[in-house]
């Protein structure tokens, strides 16, 4: 019998297609209008549309790594240009705007399923229960909004990096 594992996939904003790349566009730190990327929404699923249970992903978080999966030699990672707002664990300011957290390398943002509470929220859990694969299966996915805001001393050119979701299961 095969060992059951979480089945993670990243989908676009409306849960219809898998999302495997992100082009943040051309950003110009000398121009206030193009200093920050537009917001990019993804949905991280565990067992989307699965008809049997798989293990929960625990201690789930998001960060960025360089193209080799390391924490060095890329400004996007070392200077934490990418910012994340995870709906289930995020705060809002007094005007209701999302508060973003800088991520990169060892600096992570916790991820939990939509509407998570209690220990599931604090332990950053994505449930692996069987579900119908639609946005109503709120225990199985987390909505994450990402954006890129380079530092003022950004090196001009193309920057490659990975956005990594990690965690463990028992």
Summarize the structure.
By secondary structure, this protein is mostly beta strands. It has helices spanning 75-78, 118-122, and strands spanning 8-11, 40-46, 58-66, 82-86, 101-103, 109-110, 141-148, 161-168.
The largest pleated sheet is described as: 5 strands, antiparallel
**How are the strands of the biggest sheet laid out side by side?**
1-2-7-4-5
Query: What is the terminal separation in angstroms?
Result: 16 Å
The average pLDDT is: 93
Strand content: 25-35%
Share of helical residues: under 10%
Total discrete domains: 1
pLDDT below 50 for ≥5 consecutive residues: which ranges?
Answer: none
What's the β-strand tally? 8
Approximate shape: globular
Order of helices and strands: EEEHEEEHEE
Kindly name the structural category: mainly beta
Tally of contiguous helical segments: 2
What is the rounded Rg? 17 Å
Model description:
There is one protein chain. The chain has 170 residues and is mostly beta strands. The chain has one domain. The chain has 2 helices and 8 strands. The strands form 2 sheets. A 5-stranded antiparallel sheet has the order 1-2-7-4-5, with no helix packed on it. A 3-stranded antiparallel sheet has the order 6-3-8, with no helix packed on it. The relative contact order is 0.28. The model has no long low-confidence stretch (mean pLDDT 93).
Question: Which SSEs are present, and which pair or pack?
Answer:
Layout: E1 8-11, E2 40-46, E3 58-66, H1 75-78, E4 82-86, E5 101-103, E6 109-110, H2 118-122, E7 141-148, E8 161-168
Antiparallel strand pairs: 1-2, 2-7, 3-6, 3-8, 4-5, 4-7
């Amino acid at each position: 019998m095969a060992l059951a594992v979480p089945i993670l996939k990243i989908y676009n904003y409306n849960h219809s297609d898998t999302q495997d790349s992100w082009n943040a566009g051309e950003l110009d730190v000398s121009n206030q209008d193009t200093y920050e990327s537009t917001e990019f929404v993804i949905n991280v699923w565990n067992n989307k549309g699965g008809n049997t249970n798989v293990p929960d992903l625990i201690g789930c978080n998001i960060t960025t790594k360089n193209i080799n999966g390391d924490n060095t030699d890329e400004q996007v990672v070392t200077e934490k240009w990418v910012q994340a707002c995870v709906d289930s664990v995020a705060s809002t300011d007094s005007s209701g705007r999302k508060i973003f957290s800088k991520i990169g390398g060892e600096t992570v943002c916790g991820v939990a399923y939509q509407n998570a509470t209690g220990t599931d929220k604090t332990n950053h859990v994505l449930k692996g229960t069987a579900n119908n694969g639609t946005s109503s299966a709120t225990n199985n996915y987390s909505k994450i909004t990402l954006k890129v805001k380079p530092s003022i001393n950004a090196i001009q050119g193309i920057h490659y990096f990975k956005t990594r979701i990690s965690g463990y299961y028992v």
